[in-house]
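Problem 12. The chain below contains 322 residues. Write out its predicted structure in token notation.
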Amino acid sequence: MVAPDLPLVPVLVGPTGVGKTAVAVGLGARTLITVISADARQVYRGLDIGTAKPPRELQVRVPHLGLDLIEPGERYSAGRFARDAAGWLASVRADGREPVVVGGTGFYVRALAEGLFREPPLDPVRRERLRTWGERLPVTRLAHWAARLDRRFAGGGRQRAARAIEVALLTGRALSWWQREARETGIMRPWYIHLTLPRDALHRRIGERVDQMLAAGLVAEVRALLARGVAARAPGLDGVGYREVVATLEGRLPEARLRDAIVAATRRYAKRQETWFRNQLRRQTSDVRYQSDDVWTLDATARPEELAAMIHRRWCTIRADV
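Solution.
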């Protein structure tokens, strides 16, 4: 549920590699914005190359919040993101800037727009036992158990599967039930800008992006994290790109196949993102006036500066009408 008196906030979403960051930078050249990153992997310190984290010089031009919050191995939930982002939204406006949410983690976006369920108390001892048990299983087995316990489980990484199992076993009800029946109000009204690309164009960008990451030192980045004592299957390193590098460093994936493995995994991830955004975002509209349930689907084949100009013009119209 979204309260009508909540502030309207642009939310730039789309699959990995579609160009969200470049468009946000172009938007920042036209108006004072601060980006609130809705990316579940960019919260980790030290995971820079494989998450395509905006470089420092870019963050000086366009401030970003939601980056480098925790160490690899720690857990960061959509609920924690929503609580943190509530403070960020208020501070951005207090500074006289416009907040713009940018990211591809749908659950983070939904947490801001629609709210999260009111979580019942979870026994800490049983919760720790489940965590220890889950860490010993491959992510495919965790996902299997999550789907058995919650028929609406939409898939995802280790952390998401572990969360679904935890809630189902410790409360007696599936996570999807809690999300449906015990949802709190969101903290903003979203104006969704959904960037899309034809499949061939997106696949080409993904391949180019993976090549850039490998050339920039992705393997060395992972090797340094492991040398620091970060567990190979810790939250953060279980994400796309990182888990393939870990497999190569452990000898389970030949180095000659690393690039193609990351490309294939990234394509699958982008497809899941697109499916989520198509099915979970609110209705499509071409009206001039926008309410909290509107989505503007925008072909991202144009240059980022052109897309930013289009978004800025439409945003100015919307603000004049709200």
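Discussion. The first strand starts at residue 8 and ends at 13. Students who got a different answer should revisit the alignment rule from Section 12.3.
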